[in-house]
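Quick one, T. Sequence first:
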Amino acid sequence: MMTASTDIQYLKGVGEKRAVVLKSKGIDTVGALLRFYPRAYLDWTDRVKIAEAPFYHECCIRAKIITPIEESKKKAGMVIYRFIIEDDTDRAEIVIFNQRFLAQRLREGREYLFYGKITGSFIMRQISSPLIMETGFSGIQPIYPASQSLSSKATETLVRNAISASGLPETLPDEIRERNGLCDIKYAIENIHFPKTPEALERAKNRLVFEELFILQAGLSFLKKHSRGKAGCGIQNSFFEEFQQTLPFSLTAAQKRVARECFEDMSSGRPMNRLIQGDVGSGKTAVAAALMFAAAKNGFQSALMAPTEILAEQHFKTLCAITENSGITCKLLTGSLTKKQKTIIKTELSEGEIDVIVGTHALLSDDVNFKDLGLVITDEQHRFGVAQRSRLSSKGENPHTLVMSATPIPRTLGLIIYGDLDISVIDEYPKGRQLIDTYCVDSSYRQRIYNYIKKFLNEGRQAYIVCPLVEENEMMDITPATEYYQRLCEGEFKNYSVGLLHGKMPAKEKDRVMRSFSEGEIQLLVATTVIEVGIDVPNAVVMVIENAERFGLSQLHQLRGRIGRGKYKSSCVLISDSKARDTKKRLEIIKKSCDGFKIADADLELRGPGDFLGSRQHGLPDMKIADLFANRDVLRLAGNEVNRLIADDPRLQNPQNAGLRAEISALYKKLNSN
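Structure tokens:
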């Protein structure tokens, strides 16, 4: 008898060559294959009459072939087979392409089951390339993700072999299953792959969705518990009033509230692990400065890591201005410094002469050491892996950790992505922050938009034009940034200074272009989403986003946040020729709202969690069957059960929790290693 951990190559029907294909899909064990769920199902039990079959929908019809099967040949060697079927309500034409074996197997006068999409007209419905079965076939057929090297049918056969040869251990305790009306793991696996009825499929899916969300939240709970079992350095907030007096502006109520939440953590005797979320321009850096100020006054060093040199420089300048005349020493460490400069800074850092160090990935180098690191701050956390955050923290003795993000994430999703962190939200803008006017137009307005941009450039202001692609893509009718840049330089903006910025450029070149733009040498910047996390350019007042339908709402909001950062009124223009109803709905949301959290909620509902989970280095496993938005009620139920279980059995020592403990252990290792 095989077990779930048996290497996939030893399963009947696999072997060494097919094992390579399966492992490339992440299926390395028999258990992983059993967790490789179908992407869709064909329900051969749900049959309709021809006259009742809805157009452009897939359905199953039982009918008799009433005409001979006609064969015709087209150019390029294509062979087409046509015949008419009939039931007691109507007739329909069947069209089959290049399937000689299937055509030869069919017999005029016999009944078959036909599964496919209805097209044609009411005069004569048509089904092209249907699946055809004998009338005795009945059931719900799984459809798996397929490739040239592994068909859905081949995967189906392997899954049947896996179910026959092995099984999965039960992960959910009996009382949790009984309390929530969930089936056991054996029933769930058999019916998620080969459901006997639609009801059995639904029951299996409910169990597996609950299990996935339960194990994920349990793993994150243990991760948070582990981090809080350590002792942290005590940093008191007695210097907060002194810090506020150094500022040339007043903190908002939201900034003060979040700062107090952080100070409560830092003085609690355990390490702070907190995420500060806030829209672009909400004042996260000022809160971080307050914490670093207090850390320095308490005798501890702080490190702030940013994803780019130019953003690190911006933070450095801001902190220097805030800490001026406070006796706090602040230095910058980036990859572009000379070897001699780096050596001096590293020496001063290790000897405790630097209170605050700001830098990029350069801070992660093995030869960067601290005398007494008490606070670690990372900006735009999704640009760093969890392991990088941990690596910087490991340079101190359980230092406090603060993560800043201007990417609004719905709270439900934030609890998953940042499960090991407490979350604070700055939901208030500082006084004087400009609201941005947003317009949605089609490409017929492009010339007027160019004239609008020129008006501001002539007044000494600057502008962005964002394109979704870097290079030409034959599959999409989208103008790439490189071609767009050339066209503008040679045409409409030949008398202006135009720059190009995209992710495929070398890091030094990107920094050079961004620096030129921030210093006003470049008037108009053509860019891809590489500017989504950028720097403050208060002089930039116009942003034009081409093919706006190609972006998620949260991404559009992030891009829009690059303007409106100074004293000048700013405008964002979204260009899209899409007539799709969903696109119009999405763009209308971004047009009417500047609230990043409302926009993030709408984005999650419209696009699903992929835009968040699929594009960020969060280090969490992909959801195989659960949907964090559609299953949010289950997410809450599972979370409540996790809390109850851990309260009753904190170390999961109860024998009935052994399977669950193994699953959480595997997940915990993954969370710690990413």
